[in-house]
Write a structure and sequence with these properties.
It contains nine helices and five strands. The protein is of the alpha/beta class and 224 residues long. The protein has a five-stranded parallel β-sheet with strand order 3-2-1-4-5, sandwiched between helices. It is globular.
């Protein structure tokens, strides 16, 4: 088995892989109809979420996979929103994201470098560099959120907001959402991303239901 495939299986876990196949089977058997509620949630959350934050906020930027160790366009959009809010009301910024793919630097490190190049003080930036996916992002951020007595505001791309909210709710995190983009702009790539997010959200919900139904302690600890 190729090493890259083994790495992905190890990262997801066999429990995650089994719920992936279960989620896929449900989608196929329903001829895609089971994705409609998730797609609706992704779209409505993307359309309605504001791109603002309260003054006393802990700005939490969710990472995005680097492109040859450089910040991607989606990541820059998220960082730019955090920068705009920081300039309005300076305060702590927490950047999430570990090393993913074939990159040598963590998403959080490169996000910090970008913000510092734009004038943000290094004293105001904290990093969480262990995470490899959204669920790990939020779980590892939990302790830091508890330490900082401010309103946690998750900043991410509009297409990603619904999954972020579902997982934050599952973890029992207090939070507000902030869209990286000023408004939702339709383009072919966005439609594809929303469909992908609908599937990821569907997978998460199926996995959560199945873990509770089977009382799978390992899976329940992973998602809560």
């Amino acid at each position: 088995m190729p090493s890259e495939l083994m790495f992905r299986i190890k990262m997801i876990g066999w429990d995650g892989l089994s719920t992936f196949f279960l989620s896929t089977l449900i989608v196929l058997l329903s001829l895609g109809l089971s994705l409609i509620p998730s797609l609706r949630t992704v779209y409505l959350t993307a359309r309605k979420t504001p791109s603002t934050a309260p003054d006393k906020a802990l700005l939490i930027v969710l990472g995005a996979q680097l492109v040859q160790d450089a910040v991607s366009a989606h990541f820059i959009t998220r960082l730019q929103r955090a920068l705009n809010l920081y300039n309005l009301a300076p305060g702590p910024i927490l950047i999430l994201g570990g090393i993913t793919g074939k990159n040598h630097f963590s998403e959080a490190e490169r996000g910090r470098d970008w913000l510092e190049s734009e004038g943000v003080s290094s004293n105001d930036i904290q990093l969480e560099m262990r995470s490899r996916n959204t669920l790990e992002n939020l779980k590892h951020a939990r302790d830091l959120i508890d330490q900082i007595q401010r309103v946690p505001v998750f900043i991410t791309s509009r297409f990603h907001l619904a999954r972020c909210a579902a997982m934050a709710n599952g973890l029992g995190l207090p939070y507000q959402l902030c869209a990286a983009e000023e408004k939702l702009v339709f383009r072919p790539s966005l439609i594809f991303l929303c469909l992908m997010e609908a599937f990821y959200l569907h997978w998460y919900q199926v996995g959560k239901f199945w873990s509770r139904l089977t009382q799978n302690r390992k899976s329940l600890e992973r998602i809560s």
